[in-house]
Write a structure and sequence with these properties.
The complex is a heterodimer of chains A (126) and B (122). Chain A is an alpha+beta fold and 126 residues long. Chain A is 38% helix and 30% strand. Chain B contains four helices and five strands; from the N terminus they run ββαβαβαβα.
């Protein structure tokens, strides 16, 4: 789904809610995944200049999970270490978006190339 | 753009957030509340978030800044009704909502504000 404007962040949360219910996440797990999606989609819209979210229901052995990828073609992140530090912000936020959403999921992968864009992939297992 | 209604009950402003908040709506609420505190001379603000399914850093920041602005305008803010799953997520996300007073439900929040009001008069 496209993430271009602020209203898309709301749409994204609603979509992720549906997906987490499909995978039958507990209420706490649903809340964590939706909150992570909210932070990451806002990053895509505000800092990445827009992009998209892709999703995938994943299976590993007997585990099922939900994987979300947030991709933009924005400026990229010059210093990934710094961007993942609590309290650091390049904008007007609180600086917990990236670092905080990493704590809300099980797997977190960040690929970024300065001048080309950023892709954050997160997975939460049931 | 939709706006969140602000109700007045005596010297308390009451806000119940019932919708999935768009960032701009959250910012508008912050502005509306500040001007309503000034206009009505309210000394308490009660924000009921029991219908909110998530509180992310944006909404968290809005709650903290409403509370800060109200404080400077001599009003106390109490946030009530946070769902347990929301509280767990918020703490894990790294937001502690420092300086924001909370209560379990509207009734306790109102009691908290009433107690404040009394001690101010005494």
């Amino acid at each position: 789904m496209p993430l271009q404007a602020e209203r898309d962040i709301v749409m994204c949360r609603q979509m992720v809610r549906k997906l987490t219910q499909q995978v039958k996440f507990s209420l706490v797990d649903q809340t964590k995944m939706i909150t992570a999606a909210s932070e990451l989609s806002r990053n895509t819209v505000v800092y990445g200049g827009g992009g998209e979210m892709r999703w995938e229901l994943v299976q590993q052995g007997i585990k099922t999970g939900l994987r979300l990828a947030f991709e933009d073609k924005g400026p990229g992140i010059p210093d990934v270490e710094l961007a993942l530090t609590d309290g650091w912000t390049s904008g007007s936020g609180m600086g917990v978006g990236l670092s905080g959403s990493r704590r809300l999921v099980n797997d977190f992968e960040l690929r970024t190339v300065v001048g080309e864009g950023t892709c954050v992939t997160v997975t939460r297992w049931k | 753009m939709e706006r969140i209604p602000i109700l007045r009950m005596g010297r308390v402003l009451l806000v119940t957030i019932q919708v999935d908040l768009q960032d701009q709506v959250a910012l508008a609420l912050q502005d509306d509340l500040s001007s309503q505190i000034e206009k009505t001379g309210a000394n308490g603000v009660l924000i009921d978030i029991s219908a909110l399914e998530i509180v992310d850093s944006f909404v968290g920041r809005m709650l903290a800044s409403i509370s800060g602005i109200a404080n400077v305008l001599d009003a106390t803010t109490v946030v009530v009704g946070m769902q347990p799953a929301v509280a767990i997520t918020l703490v894990e996300l790294g937001l502690s909502l420092d300086g924001v007073r909370t209560a379990l439900n509207v009734e306790r929040g109102m009691a908290m504000l009433a107690a404040d009001d009394r001690s101010q008069i005494d």
